[in-house]
Amino acid sequence: xxxxxxxxxxxxxxxxxxxxxxxxxxxxxxxxxxxxxxxxxxxxxxxxxxxxxxxxxxxxxxxxxxxxxxxxxxxxxxxxxxxxxxxxxxxxxxxxxxxxxxxxxxxxxxxxxxxxxxxxxxxxxxxxxxxxxxxxxxxxxxxxxx
Length: 146
Ligand code: CMP
Fold this sequence. Notes:
With 146 residues, the protein is an alpha+beta fold. The chain contains eight helices and four strands; from the N terminus they run H-E-H-H-E-H-H-E-H-H-E-H. It has helices spanning 3-8, 19-23, 27-36, 51-57, 67-74, 89-97, 110-114, 129-139; strands at 10-17, 40-47, 79-87, 123-125. A four-stranded antiparallel beta sheet has the order 2-3-1-4, sandwiched between helices. Helix 4 (51-57) crosses helix 5 (67-74). The radius of gyration is 15 Å and the shape is globular. The relative contact order is 0.23. Bound molecules: adenosine-3',5'-cyclic-monophosphate (CMP). Residues 61, 66, 70, 100, 118-119, 121, 124 line the site of adenosine-3',5'-cyclic-monophosphate. The site of adenosine-3',5'-cyclic-monophosphate (CMP) has 8 residues, from loops.
């Protein structure tokens, strides 16, 4: 495989270090695990989002019983939003994150190490290519991506 072909197989995913992890000082630990797993941080920024902004991001979950609580939580403090790049980034990040409920997360995963509950589960990662595209576009303008 030549270098051009190799480069074209890189995939991007979108991730959030959630308010629980930022509050507890786990941002550095989470970023270290992400980099150690071979991801390149293509873009990152710290921000706080409003409840309507959280609702827009999680619109796909609007009918779920936990939606109200989730959007309150996601707007409760600063977060880090980022674009991560590697081969097979979407699936590999979800593997590294571990199960949504940290009680079911495997040893060596981010949620096993840092997450406190199914809602306050420290990290978000896109679940598919289409979702990644929407989520990156929700938080980043083209000029912010290198
Ligand atoms: P995330 O991967 O960001 O996608 C949706 C989020 O909703 C999820 O992580 C959790 O933070 C939250 N969530 C999912 N299921 C539940 C649930 N059963 N109860 C509360 N929160 C949930």
